[in-house]
Amino acid sequence: MKIPVLYIVIPCYNEQEVLPVTSPMFLNKLNGLISAGKIAPESKVVFVNDGSKDNTWPLIQQLADSDEHFEGICLSRNRGHQNALLGGLMTVKDHCDITISIDCDGQDDINAMDAMVDAYLDGCDVVYGVRSKRDTDTFFKRFTAEGFYKLMNHMGAEVVFNHADYRLMSSRALNEFSNFKEVNIFLRGMVPLVGFKSTSVYYERAERMAGESHYPLKKMLALAFDGITSLSVKPIRLITGFGALVSVLSFIAVIWAVLQAVLGNTVAGWASTTSIVCFMGGIQLLCLGVIGEYIGKIYMETKARPRYIISETTFEQKENV
Ligand code: UDP
Ligand code: MG
Question: Which of 2, 105, 192, 213 is the most exposed place for a label (fewest CB within 10 A)?
Answer without folding.
Answer: 2
